[in-house]
Amino acid sequence: MNRPICIASTLLIALTASMAGIAIGSDFTLNIFGNANMDDRIDQTDIDYIQEIINGSKEATMLSDVNLDGTVDLSDLQLAEELIEDRAERISLIDGNKQNLTLELPLERILTLNMRHAIALAVLGGEEKAVGVDNTVGERVELFPRLSQLPAVGTTSEPDIESIISLQPDLVVTFTNAPSTDALEDKLPEGMAVLRFDLSRSSSLREEMAVLGFLLDDPDSTQRYLDWYDRYIGEIQDKAARIEDEDRARVLMERERSADTGPTARWAYASGTGFTDLVDLAGGINIASGYMEGNKDLETEFVIDKDPQVIIGLSYKGGYKSSDPESMKAYYDEIMKTEGFGNISAVRDGRVHIISGDFSIGPQLVVGALTVAKWLYPEQFQDVDPVQVHREFLSDLMKLDYDPTENGAFVYPE
Asked: Which residue numbers delimit the Fe/B12 periplasmic-binding domain (predicted)?
């Protein structure tokens, strides 16, 4: 039986006919137990490392106790060999909450509870394993021509447990904090596992996608994504590093509200989200950072006093589910007309931008980061075309005939 851990079948066949490994950054740790030497793959070097731990010549590592019994011994050596040789009946990993999770193999039936996880499934070659999705996927038929036809199981915040159970998934993939364990794990039968990854932060996205790719057993698709991610993230970081501190743009990051709360506050993002990562990667200065934590109300007077040079508003209108840019125009107009904003540099200089959360956060975070970088530093990023990179993601990684210049509404003004 083909196990979902045989990554090295096309990448790193060195000492056996089936070795697991993904060639990714040298500073990266694949957080799967059995990766004893804490590098970016599971291969023969891990077998050697576990043997040295048993012999007493090396210290145990965080990932060397393959069976999680508190001791590194011959049983761990055997389990690591089974992982490499594609014979394992279970696999243990570290999830997005830094918790250990053991999964029974093989994983053949997977259910996702957000479009972000469905995108990951499609990119990493696991689309055929999907048995159910949440409502956000069904609302985006052009992005998910196959997955949108699968049974929908409600929303992330209100999953339909009865529907989930009826689909008999081996694995449910969702966010680290939603739904709550009370609303999900505690209601699922034994053996129906839940993997929690946010797939949103630049600090963990690559790692999470690599672990998912390992589980889905499509090394080519996984490597293709990691190469794409590294190429463009590297370009952003290289260009941003050359921007002098005194030239860094002051930015207000905010989100569209579902209801008008008046002119005294904006719903701003300061830290700790994939949205704030977009500005951090590009080398901008988030005016709310250090003044508050997370995302919450920010006094309008504070914004006026800090005089942001760029305002970026996050909207979940438009995106892949609508091709009408006017769906984001109302939010843009609301920012432009906010009392007291007329003298803010961003408003005065025409540097107010609305960005869709559909494409700027998640596995395609690279596209959002390039878009923001070009808004902040148009000269430094003049040779970068975020639309073309978005097109690459859709055509090369998701295998879609989808042109983002003709479909969807991703930024305003365009």
From this structure: 109-384
Q: How is domain 243-412 classified at the CATH fold level?
A: Rossmann fold (3.40.50)
**410 φ, ψ (degrees, to nearest 5):** -110, -30
Integer Cα distance of 347 and 307 in angstroms: 10
C-alpha 123/C-alpha 225 separation (Å) is 7
Residue in the block written with tokens 């970088």 = 373
**Beta carbons within 8 Å of 400's beta carbon, 6+ residues apart:** 142, 143, 145, 394
- pTM value is 0.91
Tens-level pLDDT at each residue, the chain (414 residues): 333 333 333 333 232 222 243 333 447 899 999 999 999 999 999 999 999 999 999 999 999 999 999 999 999 999 999 999 989 999 999 999 999 999 999 999 999 999 999 999 999 999 999 999 999 999 999 999 999 999 999 999 999 999 999 999 999 999 999 999 999 999 999 989 999 999 999 999 999 999 999 999 999 999 999 999 999 999 999 999 999 999 999 999 999 986 665 667 899 999 999 999 999 999 999 999 999 999 999 999 999 999 999 999 999 888 998 888 888 999 999 999 999 999 999 999 999 999 999 999 999 999 999 999 999 999 999 999 999 999 999 999 999 999 999 999 999 998
| Residues in Cβ contact with 180 at an 8 Å cutoff, skipping those fewer than 6 apart | none
Cis peptide before 263 (omega within 30 of 0): no
Query: How far apart are the C-alpha atoms of 140 and 319, rounded to whole Å?
Result: 9
The number of helix segments (H) and strand segments (E) in the chain equals 14, 13
Q: For the purposes of burial, counting CB atoms within 10 Å of the CB of 99, is it exposed (0-12), middle (13-18) or buried (19 or more)?
A: exposed
- Which token pair is 170? 């081996």
> How many Å apart are CA 258 and CA 204, to the nearest integer?
29
**Count of CB atoms within 10 A of residue 175's CB?**
19
User: Considering just the CA atoms, what is the radius of gyration of the chain in Å?
Assistant: 23
Rounded Cα distance between 90 and 67, Å, is 9
Cα 163 to Cα 111, 185, 188, distances in angstroms: 11, 14, 11
Q: Find all residues with CB under 8 Å of 96, minimum gap 6, and list them.
A: 175, 176, 196, 197, 198, 204, 208
